[in-house]
């Protein structure tokens, strides 16, 4: 059971890597587009994160305040991806404040995951 939970953590990390990696490619490539890979990364991180939010395969107590904050931030990132893609379709590019917020909030969620104990 514990092994299975670690496997789901690995999937969760793959989701984070896809989202943040896809964002970093755009940020450093200078194109600053919202891409499909970002949506996939978010979906994978969300599905695995929700599975990890249930108390199975773990000895310790779960920190539900932390999990709740991460869920709210994930929903905000999802909204930004949605609004950004729509604006991109209309104007050819997403507003830069919106684009940067996606990367920063993704990093904030990873920071909360590892620093909030
Ligand atoms: C963009 C969104 C997210 C990012 C970047 C992210 C990032 C991370 C990272 C890097 C870890 C590993 C921490 C460690 O091993 O100590 C982690 C663990 C975890 N995440 Fe997330 N996360 C996100 C969304 C969510 C959501 C939405 C939930 C639940 C609703 C969630 C629940 C969890 C839980 C419960 C763990 C701990 C797993 C364990 O040690 O048993 N995450 N997250």
Provide a quick synopsis of the model.
With 117 residues, the chain is mainly α. The protein has helices spanning 2-29, 36-52, 64-91, 96-115.
Ranges with pLDDT <50 over ≥5 residues? Answer: none
Helix count? 4
Average residue pLDDT? 97
H/E element sequence: HHHH
Bound molecules: protoporphyrin IX containing FE
Q: Write down the Rg.
A: 15 Å
- Return the domain count: 1
Q: How would you sum up the major sheet?
A: none
Beta-strand level of the residues, as a percent range?
under 5%
What overall form do the CA principal axes indicate? elongated
Number of strands: 0
- The amount of helix comes to over 70%
| Class from secondary-structure proportions | mainly alpha
Gap between N and C termini = 22 Å
């Amino acid at each position: 059971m514990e092994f299975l939970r670690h496997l789901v953590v690995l999937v969760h990390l793959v989701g984070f890597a896809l989202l943040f990696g896809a964002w970093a490619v755009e940020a450093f490539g200078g194109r600053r587009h919202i891409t499909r890979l970002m949506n996939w990364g978010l979906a994978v991180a969300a599905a695995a994160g929700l599975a990890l939010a249930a108390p199975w395969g773990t000895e310790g107590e779960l920190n539900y305040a932390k999990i709740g904050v991460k869920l709210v931030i994930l929903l905000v990132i999802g909204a930004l991806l949605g609004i950004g893609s729509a604006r991109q379709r209309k104007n050819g590019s997403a507003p830069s404040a919106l684009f940067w917020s996606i990367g920063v909030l993704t990093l904030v969620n990873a920071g909360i995951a590892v620093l909030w104990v």
